[in-house]
Structures are given as structure tokens and as C-alpha cells.
Amino acid sequence: MFTVPIKSLLSGNGTGTQTTAGGARLWRFHGGVHLPDEKALSNGEPAVDAPLPRQVMIPLQQHIGAPAQARVAVGDRVLKGQLIGEAQGYISAPVHASTSGVVSAIEPRPVPHPSGLRAPCVVIDTDGQDQWAELPAPITDFTAADAQTLRARVRASGIVGMGGASFPSNVKLNPGADQPIDTLVINGAECEPYITCDDLLMREHAADIVDGIRIMLHVLGAKRCLVGIEDNKPEAILAMRQAVAVAADRGDPGAALIRVVRIPTLYPSGGEKQLIKILTGKEVPSHGIPAQIGVVCQNVGTANAVADAVLRGRPLIERYVTVTGRAVAHPRNYRVPIGTPVADLIQASGGLQGQLEKLVIGGPMMGFRIDTEQLPLTKAANCILALTPGESPDPGDPLACIRCGRCAEVCPASLLPQQMYWHARAKDLDKVQDYNLFDCIECGCCAHVCPSHIPLVQYYRFAKTEVWAREREKRASEHARERHEAREARLERLERERKAKLRKKKEAIAPKAGAKPAGAKAGDGDAKKAAIEAARKRAAAKKAITSGAAGSAGADAAGADAAGGQG
Amino acid sequence: MLIAIVAMTVLAAVFGLLLGYSAIRFHIDGDPIADQVDALLPQSQCGQCGYPGCRPYAEAVAGGEAEINQCGPGGEATMLAIADLLGREPVELGEVAAKPKGVARIDEQTCIGCTKCLQACPVDAIVGAAKQLHGVIATECTGCELCLSVCPVDCIHMQPIPESISTWKWPYPASQPANQPRHAGAPEQVEIEHREAA
Fold first, then answer.
1. Where does a domain end: A487, A504, A522?
2. Statement to judge: residues B154 and B129 lie in one domain
3. Three-class SS string for A410-432?
4. Does the N terminus or the C terminus of chain A have fewer Cβ atoms within 10 A?
């Protein structure tokens, strides 16, 4: 629909090592907003290792799917990279110790989640030695390994999508034979303001990311890879292009298929569906996944983690995290062991300064507010944002919707936010779904441009969780109905059986108790006659001494008995 | 005249046969409306509506004998869904307000193993045998509270289900837009407006 081609943005930027020569066509997604990017706050310095915290809290669920099952006990000494939580089921991911130490507790602790609720965590008191556990052997020649082996390694390393959704990566890398993958899209857009962790990762680990891409290309059997990076990150684009060129010059398998594409800065171009649209012109179907149109999309952080897992045997226990916002003394990027408390990172950045309006995990558009600093950083946490009142002004009470329609103009999913708002407000869950609520990516563009400051996304989130709750209740009541019906059927069957047994018992008693008085009169004469007859026959048999006569006498007696019974 | 009478008689006979055949051929056992109402009910079989289970209540509602607001566990959502299905006016919930859902728990110290609760449970969520300690299968318990009253030693109590991250719901946005235009005040009115718009 909105396939306005824009002029090739792939003019050389002076490196001379273009792999994207030849010009690429870019597409546009509907809507989007230009935001002040605020990235200069934190991207000036290289990332450093975060100081080792005294305690790490590692949530057993840091991914979409079933929570991992703890495989250590309180008091156990664990080493860096050791498995501490085992994946449960196909859509699940294991968790590993991010440093060495002693497990001091396995209990529910507050985790980074908008609800502020607790979830099971493994708490490790670190010993400061940061001693590695024995790691699985590196698969250096990954082209010789089959896709199954590599996916198993990705799964065992606990790799999940690091762009924020944290979907287990091995599942995404296994689209099935019926969905051949043509294009691997690598997401380096990092479109949200303030966040610079992917930028720094690309600058510092471009070669690793390229290795990770080559591994994923091999696993998927894809024909090309497009790396989308917004044009406000020229250093990252340069670093990635150089890394691709170096790999191609070396003749590394797969390197020639990779193209680094500079895309215009426009929020939310880092959304999976939006980036796919920009780079390939294809639209992911509503309620569908990219694999249906032959595309798999992975974050640059995921590519880096895949390279670490396959080429070095290292599980995912560390990630780049941006600590930024004007309420932080020294904004910058850190390499953070998973499970490090937010408070430790803020401390490392010189603590908070000035007036703090709110603390956010994630970006200013899609992140969520947290109320405590005692939260662990998870595999999905890309940014800690400490905002001053000036950066995050209180919009005041929302005003009435004036139906200006600006929300619909900026919606990157081509939805009708205003209609969804009315129906979500009226709690009409069916109607709001008719307007494709579940295609909403909660990017916040609509709320951002709303002149009435209506918290639109909050309404959509409310409606989504209500719909899920309703579905859960529906399933539960279906299940209860089945059990109730099964119980009713069982009770009925038992009653029938009881009655049948009773009847049988009565019948069994009847011939003994009932037949004698009843049959006594009717069959009296017969029985006597039969007895006399039998006696006669016996006498005759004695005389004749033949066994055949005795046999017939027995048969006659039996016949008489049966007749009595029937009477 | 005669032709008209014959024609009408023949027509009547033909259509009568057709209708009679259809009545037999397309006969439906049970009440499909009751089925649809039953599908909307929470199936806790708690009897709070005054009927011995969800199905009897559904039949009563479908037959027009019962009000649509008597399902306690279903609460407002169920009432609205039934109103929508039957085209009836929504009614106030009144006394049968929805309680937070709980799960039954048996106190091991007091249970005498009388099996009374086993017999009362409509979904077989309690296991046990005579003179043995009984236990509730928490995942199967619908929270109907039918076991509470039958226990001779009062050893069963309802435990509220703690909120977890997987069941947590975003709250309804607290601050409502002020200065609403005249027709967009209450949700019902919004609804009407949209019906018009559609």
C-alpha cells in the first residue's frame, strides 16, 4: 500500500569497502514519528565492564514461554556460565550463572516487569573470582555442522531475542520445512531515543555480529541478509560494513550474502514488521509471523550471542546496557552480567543527580516505569533511563478526544487508534479486536502526537490483557465443564451398575428362595414322577448293567431340575 | 371455484408434507439457546444462582424464567455477554457481586476423612478415601465453595489465588478525559455512538 520508494540512501560514505554497491531500494512503512534522538548523551565513550556486583539475582524466566526449572540448590557453589535453570518445553530457554559464587537463595524477588510483581530468581553471592565453568566445545567450523546441532547449541546457550521481546532464538531459527526462508533481516535500527547499546555493540563487536549472521544464514539456508541500521549511527554502519568487507575478502562462507543497509531515522523503524517492510517491501500478515513471507528477523545482540555460543561455547550471560538520562551523573554503556541490580549500574554511573522524575527500564516510548532500584537486569533489558522532570514532562489530565485523526496518521501498523480507544474505553473487547488490537505494537506514536494527551497505549494494553484473561477464563470453564460432565456420566454409570448388580442379586436369590415355593406346587408331581422314573431306571440299569441307561437317567434328572427352575 | 379449492388443497397438502418432513428430518434435540448461554457461564457449578448448576441456570435463562444477573462468579462480564446474546437489557448485578476467585484448601490437622467434600465437588477436584486425608487438586478447583458447607469439621477454607506475572492485567487507565463532549460520557453512550457510526 505504502510502497513509496525513496531514493537510494546507499551512496558510499567514504569507506570504499561497500558491499551494498549497486543501489538498494528502500520502502516506507505507514506513519511513524521523528523524535529527538538523545543518543549523544551516552554514545560518546566505549562500553566498559560493569563492576562485579556483590549479589546477582537471575530470574528463571527471562523469555517468552515456560519458566526454567532451577537446577541448583541453596548453598551450591556455581561457576560462571554454569547451567542453573533448565528449559521446560520447546518454547523455553535455560539460564546460566553470570559469575561464580554461592547460591544464597532461590525465591521470588521483584523482577523488571510493569506489574512490579515478584518471580522466582536464583540469587548468587558472588565471590569476585569470576571463574569460568567448563564450557561446551566450540564449533569453529560451523559450516560442517548441521542446522540441528547449531540450533541445539543456541538453545543450550539460553539465547533469546535481545531486541526486547526475548523470544527463544532457536525456535525462530527453526521455521519448518514448509516455510523456506529467503531473507535474514538483522535489526540494528535501534530507533528508540536515548538507547545506544546496539550502536556500541555494533561498533565494538562488528566482526562477532558478522560471524553470528553467517551462522544464522547457514542454519536458515537463507539467500541473503539485510542489516538495517538507522542513519543516525554512522560509526556503527561503518564498522559493520568494514567487518562484512573483511569477512568477504577472507572468503568466509556467507559473508558475500550480507548487505548493510542505511535506513532513514524514523521511529519505530526498529519494529520487526516495520524494518522488514523498509528493507524488503513485504508486509507481515496480520496475526502472522515473518517466516510466512520467507523472512526471519533477529537483533544484532542476538547475532553476537549466537557467535559467542557457537564459536566460543559461551552461554548468554552478559549484555550491553545503556545507562542514560539527564538524572544520571555519567551516562554511558556497560557490559553487564545478567542479574546485576539496577542500583549497582546507577552507582557505577556516578549515581543519580538533580531531580528524578522517573526511572524506566527500556526506552522512553516503550519502556516501563520501575519503582525500585533493587531489580535485576535480564537478557531483554537494554536501557536504564533516569529522566528529569524536564525530559518527561507531566502532560496533565487527558482532555477529550477531538477526533483530529493524527493518531491514525502516525500509526506504523496502519490501525485506527481512535476507534480502538473508544472501544477499549467502553471495555468492548470484541469490537476492539475487530479493529485489530493485536496488530498494535504499542510503540506509543499515537499517544505521542495526541493533542489531548490521552494515554492511548495504556488503553490498548489494558484491553489486550483483558482479552487474554477472558480467554484464560474461557479455557478454564471449558475444562470445568468437561470434568463436570465426566463426573455426571460416571455417577450415572455407577448408579446403573449398582442397579444392575441389585437386579442380578435378586435374580440370583430368586431360584433358591422363590423357586421352591413357586415350583413346589406346579412341579411337585413331575418331580416325584421323575424321581420314581429315575429309581426305576436305576433298578433297570442294575439289572441290565449298562452304563448307557445310567447316562440317560442323569440327563432326565437334569431336565426335571431345569423345568422346576423355570416354574 | 372448484379449481381454486382443489388448488389450495393440493398446495396445503404439499406444504404440509414438506413441513412435516422437515420437522422430522431437521429435528434438534435440546435447546440450542440454552447451549449458547451455558457456554457463557463459568461452569463452577456453584449454585449461587439458585439453580443446581450452570446447565439448569442456562436452561432457565433461555426459557425466560430466570434473570440474567444471577451468576456470581461470572460477574458483570457474563451478565453483559448473556444480555448481548439474548438481546435483553443489561441489569444491575445487585447482591451477587463477583468475589475474587479462590482455591479450596483442606487443613490436614482437622480433616477426618469423611469423603463428604469428595461427593460435593462438581469437578472431582478433591481426592481421598474414607478415613484417609483428603486433598484438593488446586489446578482443577473452580472455587465454587460447595465443599465448605458440607464439611462436618469446617476444615476447608478458600485461599485467594495470588497474582502472578502471567495472569497480571494492565489496570484500566485511571484518569479519564475531562470535558467530554455531550454524547461521549458514559461507556453505554459511547457504544451507541459507535453503532450509529458503523
1. A522
2. yes
3. HCCCCCCHHHHHHHHHCCCHHHH
4. N
Instruction: Give the tens place of pLDDT for each residue, A345-382.
Output: 999 999 998 888 999 999 999 999 999 999 999 999 99
Give the distance from residue B11's alpha carbon to the nearest chain A alpha carbon, in angstroms: 47
Kindly determine whether residue A465 and residue B194, on different chains, have CB atoms separated by under 8 Å: no
Cβ-based contacts of A117 with chain B (< 8 Å):
163-165, 168
Angstrom distance (rounded) from CA B70 to CA B49: 5
Closest residue on chain B to A424 (Cα): B172
pLDDT in tens, A210-260: 999 999 999 999 999 999 999 999 999 999 999 999 999 998 888 899 999
Do B106 and B150 reside in the same domain of the chain? Answer: yes
Structurally, chain B folds into a number of domains equal to 2
CA nearest to A462 within chain B: B170
Please tell me the distance from the alpha carbon of residue B62 to that of residue B67, in angstroms, as a whole number. Answer: 10
Number of A–B residue contacts, CB under 8 Å: 104
Mean pLDDT, chain A, whole residue set: 87
Domain closes at, from A266, A286, A314: A314
Range of the domain at B81: 32-86
Q: What is the pLDDT of residue B94?
A: 65
**Range with the poorest average pLDDT among A30-34, A91-95, A153-157, A559-563:** A559-563
CB contact residues (below 8 A), chain A span 58-87, against chain B:
61
Q: What is the CATH number of the domain that holds A241?
A: 3.40.50.11540
Cell 565513550 found at:
A45
CA A114 to chain centre: 17
Task: Tell how far CA B187 is from the center of its chain.
Answer: 24
For residue A321, what is the enclosing H or E element?
strand A318-324
Q: What is the pLDDT of residue B95?
A: 62
Residues of B in contact with A454 (CB under 8 A): 177
Per-residue confidence (pLDDT) for residue A32, from 0 to 100? 92
Chain A residue with the nearest C-alpha to that of B122: A484
In a shared domain, residues A473 and A504:
yes
Q: Does B132 touch chain A (CB under 8 A)?
A: no
Residue A562 pLDDT > 60, yes or no? no
> Do residues A434 and A287 share a domain?
no
Residue at B183 is within a domain: no
User: pTM score > 0.90 for this model?
Assistant: no
My answer on whether B76 and B106 are in the same domain is: no
Map residue A308 onto helix, strand or coil.
helix
- Highest mean predicted confidence (pLDDT) among A277-281, A390-394, B100-104: A277-281
> By percentage, how much of chain A surpasses pLDDT 90?
71
Cβ separation of B187 and A478 shorter than 8 Å? no
Q: Give the tens place of pLDDT for each residue, B50-75.
A: 888 888 899 898 888 888 888 888 88
pLDDT tens across B65-101, in order? 888 888 888 888 888 888 888 888 888 776 655 567 7
* Residues of chain B with C-beta less than 8 angstroms from the C-beta of A480: 42-45, 123, 140, 142
Annotate A285-296 with b (16+ C-beta within 10 A) or e (fewer): eeeebbbebbbb
What is the model's pLDDT at position A157?
A: 94
CATH of the domain at B136: 3.30.70.20
Helix (H) or strand (E) holding A337: strand A332-337
Q: Which residues of chain B have pLDDT under 70?
A: 94-99, 175-198
- A474, containing H or E segment: helix A456-509
Q: Which of B82, B85, B63 is nearest to B74 (CA)?
A: B82
Q: Is A423 on the interface with B (CB under 8 A)?
A: yes
A427/B contact by beta carbon, under 8 A: yes
Please indicate, yes or no, if residue A192 is contained in any of the structural domains: yes
Put simply, the answer to whether A480 touches B42 (Cβ < 8 Å) is: yes
